[in-house]
Amino acid sequence: MSFKNEYRIVKTNRRKINPTLIVGAVIVLLVCFAVMAVLGAFSGKGEDVSSLAPVSSAVNAITLASSEESSSEASTSSVTTSAPSTTSSKVQTSSVASVKPSTSSKASSVTTSSAPQIEANVPNGDWRLVIANKQYPLPESYKINVTYLPNGYRLDSRIVDAYNSMIAGAKEDGITLKIISGFRTYQGQTTLFNNKVNKYLNQGYSREKAKELAAQYVAPPGTSEHLTGLAVDLISTNWYNYNSDLNSGFEKTKEFEWLYNNCAEYGFVLRYPKDKEVITGYSYEPWHYRYVGIEAAKEIMSNKICLEEYVERFN
Ligand SMILES: [Zn+2]
After folding, report:
1. CA of 178 to the centre of ligand 1 (A)
2. In the annotation, is 285 catalytic?
3. pTM of the full predicted structure?
4. Residue 144 CB coordination number (10 Å)
């Protein structure tokens, strides 16, 4: 058989096979696209959904998305891998409206290893005094056990009783406090910070300036107290509903007045006072309270000092 003939045969064969191959290839491609689309949809959903842990605040969290504290929990819970497995799976697959906070009193370990540099953040070796600020950022390896509150927010398990006592004490005095942020993960804080930076970049600021501006309101990764699980953002429901952003106007509410006068009784302090911005590195936040233990709290609040000033004695 000459080369020409051979070529013809092959060519003929090809002509016969081609339609089948094309149809087959098209089917394979369609199947691949379908699989990719399904996978893409699921992973996308998982990220979105897991970013809205507490049901009760889901709507408000959206309205306050530009502020530091409100979007807080939103990004935090991208870490649902460290949450109890039942919750995690629920969050990954359900829609926003049906995301349920996990049951209370379930503790879970959040990060894994400790590092020597953590010692610098813990004055006198007292975990209640742990410092997380711009000067002493917490390493990503800082480890705590968190407990889920019934509303889905998380706190360091060791302060849950003190927190519950404070909320109950307020209620006895006719004050209803609403928590809008608790424990945040390192990754969540990173997302939160980057979102804020992007907001300023979109307004035309340089990257350096955008970071500087963002840091005024959102703690850069490692520098947020919410990483410690010892900080809570508390406001009044009423005020929350009528304000589109967290601002110092909260100090005019009776809820703030109660918190300011009573938080120390339960071991909490106003962490970022108005006149300590140079020391704390953060703007006045009348909604942000930090557990330090009753003894330290009373001394800090009665002397109107900030945590950094209090722990100086241990340096
Ligand atoms: Zn806060």
Report:
1. 13
2. yes
3. 0.64
4. 20
CA angle 126, 184, 63 (to 5 degrees): 140
Distance, C-alpha 254 to centroid of its chain: 27
Alpha-carbon distance 99 to 55, whole Å? 6
Strand 145-148 and strand 107-109: the pairing is antiparallel
Residue 116 CA to ligand 1 centre (angstroms): 26
CA distance 296 to 281: 21
Calpha distance 263→290 (Å, rounded): 9
**Mean pLDDT for back-to-back runs of 10 residues, the chain (315 residues):** 38 48 55 46 29 31 31 32 32 28 42 56 93 91 93 97 98 96 92 94 96 86 93 91 85 96 98 95 94 98 97 87
136 and 4 within one domain: no
Q: Of residues 6, 285, 308, 309, which has the active-site annotation?
A: 285
Using the mean position of ligand 1's atoms as its centre, give its distance from the Cα of residue 208 in Å: 24
CATH code for position 87 = 3.30.1380.10
H-type alpha helices, 135-219? 160-172, 186-202, 207-217
- The reported pLDDT for the residue numbered 251 is 94
Q: Are residues 131 and 85 in the same domain?
A: yes
Q: Are residues 66 and 28 in the same domain?
A: no
What spacing in Å lies between the alpha carbon of 32 and ligand 1's midpoint? Answer: 45
Tokens of 80: 């649902």
Q: Which residue segment(s) compose the domain that 279 sits in?
A: 52-314
Task: Looking at the structure, tell me whether residues 10 and 74 fall in a common domain.
Answer: no
Which backbone phi and psi does 11 adopt, to 5 degrees?
A: -60, -45
Cβ–Cβ under 8 Å, residues 264 and 239:
no
Distance of CA 273 to the CA centre of its chain: 22
User: What residues does 179 pair with on adjacent strands?
Assistant: 234
Whether 218 and 267 map to the same domain: the answer is yes
288 lies in the same domain as 220: yes
Residues 56 and 46 in one domain: no
Q: Are 61 and 40 contained in the same domain?
A: no
